[in-house]
Each structure stands twice: as C-alpha cells, then as structure tokens.
Design goal:
4-stranded mixed β-sheet, single chain, globular, 156 residues
C-alpha cells in the first residue's frame, strides 16, 4: 500500500523520540491508509472534544481494531466478527478535504488498536488547513505555524 509501511516506520521513530515531526506529517500526507466505512460514511470517534477519523496503515492493523471493537461489544447494527468495509484514501485527502468538511474540530488517529504504534494527528496548524485548526489566531491573521507535538497529540 502506497507509503503506509513508511508511515508506520515514521510513527515508530517519533514514538522513540527520533525523527522530525514535519516529516511524519508529510509521510501521512503521502500514504494510502485504510479508513473503515460505516453506514456510508467514514468511521470516526469522539475523544477530548475532537472527532477523530480512524485510519490504518494496513489490513492487519484494521483487523486488530475490528477484533478489539468486537471484543468490546461491537458497534450497533454491526454483527460481531463480520467483515468491515473500508476505503483506501491518501492522507492528504483526509487532512485537506475530509477534516474541513466535518465542520467540527477533527484530526486523524492512525492504528488506534496498536498501543505501541498509534499516533494522533490533531487539528492544529501544520497538520490541517489553518482555517480549521483549533490553534489558529481568532483574528484570522496567520502567524508562524505551531510546532507539531512530538507525540502527535497524545491520543493512543
């Protein structure tokens, strides 16, 4: 899958305190990731006042997520152990088109079922468009981009 392995490698580097956060964001933008589809839309989760689009670097990571959801009681309307539909999307499309279209603070959470490999890309400048970033100046004037948190924002 286009760049998803490289994305997983960059995530591992950042979690180890290595690498450049901007390179990690660039890797997400280039990668093709898998996003579960539910009732015709992308599967998202609310956490900390942010809507998170859940994306996965490969089918194995998505399968771990599906098993964890099934073990936790599954989702309303979804048969436990059933197949999960997914879309394969470029990370740039998630960040530049889909996040702004949600109309609420939104980010991308990658490989959320993997405690040692998960990474969040929060809705801040340098990750999502400035006009939907929660850290953008209220007066609309562009300032220097915010530093991307080393841990991707802390959702794991």
């Amino acid at each position: 899958m286009g760049g998803a392995t490289a994305l997983a490698e960059r995530i591992a580097e950042r979690r180890a305190g290595l690498g450049d956060p901007r390179e990690l964001v660039g890797e997400l933008r280039r990668a093709l990731v898998l996003v579960p589809v539910d009732s015709g839309g992308l599967w998202t989760a609310e956490f900390g006042g942010v809507r998170w689009i859940c994306a996965f670097t490969d089918e194995a990571a998505l399968a771990r997520f599906a098993r964890a959801r099934d073990a936790a009681g599954g989702d309303t309307g979804r048969e436990a152990g059933g197949t999960w539909e997914f879309a394969e999307l470029r990370g740039a499309r998630l960040l530049d088109e889909i996040v702004p279209a949600l109309g609420v603070p939104a980010g991308v959470a990658v490989d959320v079922a993997d405690p040692e490999g998960a990474m969040a890309f929060p809705p801040v400048r340098g990750i999502v468009p400035d006009d939907v970033a929660i850290d953008a100046p209220a007066d609309g004037q562009a300032g220097p981009p915010a530093d991307v948190p080393a841990d991707g924002g802390g959702v794991r």
